[in-house]
Write a structure and sequence with these properties.
By secondary structure, this protein is an alpha+beta fold. It has helices at 7-16, 31-35, 39-72, 74-89, 109-117, 131-137, 140-145, 151-154, 274-297, 301-305, 323-340; strands at 157-165, 170-177, 187-195, 210-216, 229-235, 245-251. The strands form two sheets. A four-stranded antiparallel β-sheet has the order 1-2-3-4. Strands 5-6 form a two-stranded antiparallel ribbon. The longest helix has 34 residues, at 39-72. The relative contact order is 0.11.
């Protein structure tokens, strides 16, 4: 039988396992309960903690398999999305047999008639104009980030794709652009790095894969075309230049700030700074946007385009209607965990 622990030993075990003592009265709310347990009961609780670590290790293995499963089906999803790209770009014209779905699912006959009667004359334009601009604007969080100055640029967005990396774990978003007068890049990448395994020093804090870092491409803006920066004039109040106006370049709101995320404080040197708290919030928002694009916008782009899909719907459509739906709930929960688990890693 393992050696019995006293209250102090158990408190130290809990503290080292990631449980803080800042609860009720400045200590863990169950500290007194644990301290009064008989030695044998404390030993049993300690054994349960050992089992909990084993359970966490199994959970990590599960998430690793899910990530591998996503990679396994990546080519099949990619083939479907490539056909979508061709239709959007006007490289492929669907046959009548391929275009039998109503524009809005569940429409009444009257609504379908109205949709058809309001068709404007065909001007010979190929594909689906402004498809991805409309998709992004129809996604609440992304739409809020798109400024008026971004829209002319996003009209050149021809496709959004993603792929999964296994070693090291992560995923990459690709924004494909037609040749344009705003920047030289034809593809803008955003890389998300994941940590799938629990931290051996703090296993009880594990709650699924965590995003550890995100890296965006440097955009090669043409002169005067960068919407992420603006020049302001500021009147000097003091010093030799008092009364004069000085110009200063500052950061401006723009969708394209998405490719210039805050840097991760890997050494946690600034954890006590208010500025670091703001950075953490920006990082969480950035991770959330990336996950939304990958898991919802890319696979269901047409539903955002038609207005049938919104972020509130993403997790409301699951019921108890069979094994497949249960599997989808499981995968969605897994991805949501990956999306939200950022605090301890960044």
């Amino acid at each position: 039988m393992p050696e019995a622990m006293n209250g102090g030993d158990l408190a130290e075990l809990l503290k080292n396992s990631g449980y803080n003592f800042e609860g009720m009265g400045g200590v863990n709310q169950n500290f007194e309960l644990l301290a009064k347990l008989p030695a044998k009961v404390k030993s049993r609780v300690s054994a349960l903690k050992g089992l909990q670590v084993k359970s966490i290790e199994i959970e990590a293995a599960f998430y690793k398999k899910v990530h591998e499963l996503e990679k396994q089906f990546e080519a099949e999803f990619g083939a479907v999305n490539e056909q979508r790209r061709k239709i959007v770009a006007g490289e492929y014209e669907p046959t009548a047999e391929e275009a039998t779905r109503p524009l809005i699912h569940g429409s009444t006959e009257e609504e379908i008639k109205e949709l058809n009667e309001k068709s404007e004359p065909d001007n010979g334009e190929k594909g689906i104009p402004d498809f991805w601009l409309t998709v992004l604007k129809s996604t609440e969080n992304l739409g809020e980030a798109i400024q008026d100055c971004d829209e002319p640029i996003l009209k050149f967005l021809t496709d959004v794709t993603s792929d999964v990396q296994l070693e090291p774990a992560g995923f990459t978003l690709f924004f494909h652009f037609a040749e344009n007068s705003f920047f030289k890049n034809t593809v803008l990448k955003k890389v998300y790095k994941l940590e799938v395994k629990p931290d051996p020093e703090d296993p009880f804090d594990y709650d699924g894969p965590a995003v550890t870092e995100t890296i965006g491409d440097k955009i090669e803006w043409n002169e005067g075309c960068d919407p992420t920066k603006k020049v302001i004039k500021k009147k000097q109040k003091k010093g030799a230049n008092a009364g004069k106006f000085l110009t200063k370049t500052v950061k401006a709101d723009s969708f394209f700030n998405f490719f210039d995320p805050p840097k991760v404080d890997a050494d946690h040197k600034n954890e006590e700074d208010d500025e670091d708290d703001e950075t953490q919030e920006l990082l969480r928002a950035d991770f959330e946007l990336g996950q939304i694009i990958r898991d919802h916008v890319i696979p269901r782009a047409v539903l955002f385009y038609t207005g049938e899909q919104c972020e509130d719907d993403m997790f409301d459509d699951f019921g108890d209607e069979g094994c497949l739906q249960g599997t989808m709930i499981l995968l969605t929960t897994t991805r949501m965990t990956m999306m939200m688990r950022t605090t301890s890693k960044v």
